[in-house]
């Protein structure tokens, strides 16, 4: 049985990693080499694509963190969870949810992301 809570926690750890070497290691451990990641802001593939996307989020929102918002739901090889992005300790101004699809070894091979709450410019 897959521990979807652990998958979501590892995912958020990778997204919160600001050290480039550590982030690359976390991405390589969690995602398949041919992972595809698609959300309203980006469509990237592979470890380098995911790593660059995460690095870009840190550049755009310095000091902000990703947090789990609500329970993780999963079945088979897929899970969904809601996350928040914002300064630590406050209600996140950005909220979205991601659906991840796992391979047979429990690594993420596909991410489908959605944005539910985005501050207006």
Task: Give an overview in words.
The chain is 32% helix and 41% strand. With 121 residues, it is an alpha+beta fold. Strand 1 and strand 2 (42-45) form a beta hairpin. Helix 2 packs across helix 3.
Give me some keywords for this one:
single chain, 121 residues, alpha+beta, 7-stranded mixed β-sheet, globular
Q: How large, in whole angstroms, is the Cα Rg?
A: 13 Å
- Proportion of helical residues: 25-40%
By DSSP (H or I, 4+ residues per run), the number of helices equals: 3
The end-to-end span amounts to 43 Å
Percentage of β-strand residues: 35-45%
Low-confidence region ranges = none
Return the average pLDDT rounded to an integer.
Answer: 96
What structural class should be given to the helix and strand makeup? alpha+beta
Query: What is the molecular shape?
Result: globular
Largest sheet: 7 strands, mixed
Brief sketch in words of this structure:
32% of the residues lie in helices and 41% in strands. The chain has 3 helices and 7 strands; from the N terminus they run ααββαβββββ.
Question: What is the element layout, followed by pairings?
Answer:
Elements: H1 4-16, H2 20-30, E1 31-39, E2 42-45, H3 46-60, E3 64-68, E4 73-75, E5 78-87, E6 94-102, E7 108-117
Parallel strand pairs: 1-7
Antiparallel strand pairs: 1-2, 3-5, 4-5, 5-6, 6-7
Helix pairs in contact: 1-2, 2-3
């Amino acid at each position: 049985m897959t521990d979807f809570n652990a998958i979501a926690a590892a995912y958020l750890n990778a997204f919160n990693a600001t050290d480039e070497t550590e982030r690359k290691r976390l991405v390589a451990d969690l995602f398949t080499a041919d992972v595809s990641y698609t959300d309203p802001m980006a469509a990237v593939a592979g470890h380098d694509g995911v790593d660059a996307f995460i690095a870009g989020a840190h550049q755009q929102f310095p000091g902000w963190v990703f947090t789990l918002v609500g329970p993780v739901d999963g079945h088979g090889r897929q899970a969904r969870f809601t996350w928040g992005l914002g300064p630590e300790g406050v209600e996140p101004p950005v909220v979205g949810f991601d659906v991840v699809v796992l391979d047979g070894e429990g690594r993420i091979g596909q991410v489908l992301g959605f944005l539910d709450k985005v501050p207006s410019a």
